[in-house]
Amino acid sequence: MPILPKTSVTARSGLLDHAGRPETAGTTSREPVRWQKEMQDAFRTGESLLRFLDLDPAQAPEGLAPDPAFPVLVPQSFASRMVKGDWRDPLLLQVLPRDGETRSVPGFLADAVGDLASQVVPGLLHKYDSRALLMVSHQCAVHCRYCFRREFPYGDMPRGQAGWDEAWAYLESAEGVDEIVLSGGDPLFLDNRRLERILERAAALPRLRTVRFHTRLPIVLPSRIEPGLLAMLRSLSEAKTLIVVIHANHANELDAGTGRALSGLRAAGAMLLNQAVLMAGINDDADVLADLSRGLLAQGVLPYYLHQLDRVVGTAHFETPEAKGRDLIEALRGKLPGYAVPRYVRETAGEPFKTPLSV
Ligand SMILES: *Cc1c(COP(=O)(O)O)cnc(C)c1O
Ligand code: SF4
């Protein structure tokens, strides 16, 4: 269930009037729409996912380390892009709990990137001068085992429309801020009715030039990119610069379904960028990263960031040394045009921007 309870609708700006047609999720009825139904059918245990992949859970090379606070969650459409019978499948490794999660490793912390210190009002992180990040949802369609926010105390986030008043008041008075990043969790996990209220409030802020989404849904649940959502985004993009930063780590995550979702977003006026996380055994290879960049370009997406893994508890088994990351970027420069080489960065608490790790 989304976190924001049903509350009265505030004054409408009129900007997003053509959202809210019957196909719009949750606007006219409480019936789950297709993507929500798909979520009901998602894999919620490692065992069921493995059986779907023709893998015997009893043969698992490592224990499945179930974490009740961060259980397995994988939509079938994402699982269908995994190679059956392959324990080392790069998509499976992103979502299957492994023994490393329970290991405590010095230097790996609950809040590795200083998110809590930069939370200026509940639900709003203001870390970098010109842009602020709103954690509008605490839910995702998939649970990525390396997630940098897997320990974030979402329970303390604002609830209801009124709960967000403080965040919007802050944005109104924060003079240097001309961009908001809608994040979470995954902002597109909100239904259209809740999203519409947020976009209306964003559209009503004159100083705001850009609305940016950080979302993994176009990749892990492409059916979320449905006509009602696209209509809202199209309206928004007439008033503000619209950027959608997706998150794919391996070319196998891209298929015809993501291609359709991404071209829908582009047609709605969004600029598309990708962020990936460098991870051992998944994409720490120059050919794999080059294929990812090529796959993204073919679907209209520019590679933006390649993140050095944030050192969050339970994720040490994904870490790749920075020296190797630098070598990989060097190798990519020989293989790809400049625009297809992502910026390799690390996030360091207290720094004014994400730290570049290669020139
Ligand atoms: C990463 C991040 C941003 C966006 O940073 P860019 O370098 O502009 O992509 C904004 N706010 C927070 C809190 C972030 O972690
Ligand atoms: S989609 Fe993003 S926020 Fe959600 S679990 Fe994955 S990495 Fe974390």
Kindly describe this structure.
This protein has 359 residues and is an alpha/beta fold. It folds into two domains: 9-23 and 30-102, no CATH class; 116-356, TIM Barrel, CATH 3.20.20.70. The protein is built from twelve helices and ten strands. The protein has helices at 34-40, 46-52, 76-79, 92-95, 160-163, 165-173, 192-203, 217-220, 227-239, 256-267, 286-298, 322-335, and strands at residues 119-121, 124-128, 131-135, 179-183, 210-214, 241-247, 270-277, 302-307, 343-346, 355-356. Strands 1-2-3-4-5-6-7-8-9-10 form a ten-stranded mixed beta sheet. Helix 10 (256-267) links the parallel strand 6 and strand 7 (270-277). The longest helix has 14 residues, at 322-335. It is globular, with a radius of gyration of 20 Å. The chain starts with 33 loop residues before the first helix and ends with a strand. The structure holds pyridoxal-5'-phosphate and iron/sulfur cluster (SF4). Iron/sulfur cluster (SF4) binds at residues 140, 142-144, 147, 149, 185-186, 216, 247. The site of pyridoxal-5'-phosphate has 9 residues, from strand 2 and strand 3.
